[in-house]
Design goal:
The structure holds 2 protein chains of 2 kinds. Chain A is built from 3 helices and 11 strands. Chain A is an alpha+beta fold. Chain A has 2 domains: 36 residues; 126 residues, Jelly Rolls (Sandwich). Classes of the chains: A alpha+beta, B mainly alpha. Chains A and B meet through strand 10 of A and loops of B.
């Protein structure tokens, strides 16, 4: 069982603090409120948490064994680590190099595919050439767990580079599902 | 007598003018029993682009050999209809009519007609996921095909053999010989940077052409630039997983066939024609840019510092003697890249003869295919997106 299931009260408070959209602006409270409202409207069509089968699936994987995947140390080495959101392997432990950023190739095998990523809350990642549909949402998937949730739309099939930034933990719990 | 038989077997049956064979290209090797005819090539074009030739309706030959990508797919390693990852990167089919070896691993001795059955029917990995029965069922159920088979083979009843012959014929008709480099071969100067890159490419300093020589830049050459064999196969020092020359288990090279240690990491040299379009590069698609590829060669082998296969390819004991490394300034690297760009035949990308006859998805979706110069998607209704 992962240690995130035994959070201390202090950590739980921190977790609650983290359970807001990662990209929410902070400078202007009015703008913040407006943008949150817009975001909320958009989110109504995109289920999360208990209403979402993929979130439930991801939460169900929390105590499952992971497949270790060693990320590349540079974009040039992203091709050394492949993920296919194919329903065969859903769950990984991404191991980032000591040097900092980590690079993984996601192979998208079909057109107009939406892929769900669930990760440790402190993992920061991005994918070029894909549309981020919801932004990184903390605790959206499993309200009691510090798991972030993100949705990307891939318009074309192909190989995409998933970049973890250097602030991420060295070992990242990472689940991937294709919504089709 | 044997040489007479060989001469007959490879006797060209291709009409150079009809198929647009460039003047500076030799006659291609077209099998005596499968001459290129317009009817066969047209049938082959339909089959090549038909999504119905994959079990899930999500793959066609043409989607993995896409025109805009130099007839490759853009993947690191292709993914089949059941999400199997192919162990190697997808090769181009351009100028396949002149290729004696197919695939990355040398010694396959397959004709195009035989080779294309591997992605169609193969199970390890599953690429298009077809069986012969399903393939014939799909073709039989499609009213487009009886007249095309009749015109191509004089028999409206489709067979796997005829389908393979038609697809191979279409592939042989895909000819790329109108790049700036081809123009240079015929007397037109290259842009200055590409010309400097050409001199570097064929020069002793980089020795690129010792492996990428000849008209198709896939033949080994000697120090005088003479082609010594039609195709070469080398270990280029991309990996050294165990410090003793091993490549990753997923694609170990010719050693998988021969069992000889010295064949570890040995793969056929691909043609560099249209190379700027065909990334990612390398036998396993693990080289993300041509600059990275140049860096690997300049270093005398690639250093993989992370991931599951770390190691220094420069110290791979089975590495080709031509991969010795070289010094290259940034400007020289740019010149070499400009030369590689000059190997692109842009006319190929727009040539209507090589395009899919079927409508793109969006035209299908609008329900107005009759207005477009294309044929509605021929997949069975249950396989349409």
């Amino acid at each position: 069982m992962r240690n995130i299931l035994t959070l201390s009260a202090a950590a739980a408070l921190l977790t609650l603090a983290a359970c807001t959209p990662a990209d929410a602006p902070v400078e202007d409270p009015i703008q913040e409120q407006e943008e949150e409202e817009i975001e909320e409207v958009e989110r109504r069509d995109l289920p999360e948490g208990i209403d979402d089968a993929f979130s439930q699936q991801a939460c169900g994987l929390l105590d499952q064994a992971t497949t270790e995947l060693l990320a590349g140390a540079s974009e040039s080495e992203a091709g050394q680590a492949l993920i296919v959101p194919d329903g065969k392997t859903d769950l990984y432990e991404i191991v980032l190099p000591e040097t900092g950023e980590g690079f993984v190739t996601v192979e998208i095998p079909d057109w107009m595919t939406t892929v769900r990523f669930f990760a440790d809350e402190n993992a920061n990642y991005s994918i070029e050439d894909a549309d981020e549909l919801t932004g990184l949402r903390q605790c959206g998937a499993c309200p009691d767990e510090p798991i972030s949730d993100n949705r990307y739309a891939f318009h074309e099939w192909g190989s995409y580079t998933l970049t973890f930034d250097a602030e991420s933990p060295r070992r990242i719990w990472f689940a991937v599902f294709s919504e089709g | 007598m044997i040489s007479l038989l060989l001469a007959c077997a490879s006797e060209p049956t291709l009409d150079r003018d009809l198929w647009g064979v460039p003047e500076h290209f030799p006659d291609p090797a077209v099998p005596q029993d499968n001459p290129l005819t317009p009817a066969r090539v047209e049938l082959g074009r339909y089959l090549f682009y038909d999504f119905g030739l994959s079990d899930t309706g999500t793959r066609s030959c043409g989607i993995c050999h896409e025109t805009a990508k130099g007839f490759t797919d853009g993947f690191v390693r292709a993914v089949g209809t059941h999400n199997d990852i192919h162990p190697r990167n997808t090769l181009s089919v351009i100028n396949a009519a002149w290729r004696g070896e197919l695939g990355w691993v040398p010694g396959s001795n397959l004709t195009l007609e035989q080779q294309l059955l591997i992605p169609l029917l193969g199970e390890h990995p599953i690429e298009m996921g077809m069986s012969e029965a399903l393939l014939l069922e799909r073709i039989n159920d499609n009213p487009l095909y009886p007249p095309l088979f009749e015109q191509a083979f004089g028999d409206a009843e489709p067979t796997l053999e005829h389908a393979a012959m038609a697809i191979a014929g279409f592939e042989r008709s895909i000819i790329g010989g109108r790049s700036p480099y081809d123009a240079w071969l015929q007397g037109t100067p290259l842009p200055e940077d590409a010309e400097r890159g050409r001199a570097l490419f064929f020069g002793e300093e980089t020795q690129c052409s010792r492996c990428h020589g000849g008209l198709f830049l896939d033949s080994p050459t000697n120090q005088w630039g003479q082609v010594t064999a039609k195709h070469g196969a080398f270990n280029t020092g991309l990996y050294n997983v165990d410090g003793e020359g091993a490549y990753p288990e997923t694609a170990p090279g010719l050693i998988a066939k021969t069992g000889r240690a010295r064949d570890s990491g040995v793969f056929r040299t691909p043609s560099l024609r249209n190379v700027a379009l065909t990334g990612p590069w390398g036998h396993d698609g693990s080289v993300g840019s041509l600059q990275d590829m140049l860096d690997s060669y300049a270093r005398g082998g690639r250093l993989v510092s992370s991931g599951a296969n770390p190691g220094d390819g420069a110290t791979n004991p089975h590495k080709s003697k031509h991969i010795q490394g070289f010094d290259l300034s940034e400007a020289q690297a740019q010149d070499l890249l400009a030369f590689l760009d000059a190997l692109t035949d842009e006319s190929l990308l727009e040539d209507a003869r090589y395009q899919s006859p079927f409508c793109p998805f969006d035209i299908n979706d609008t329900g107005t295919p009759a207005e477009a110069d294309c044929i509605p998607d021929s997949r069975p209704p249950e396989l349409l997106p």
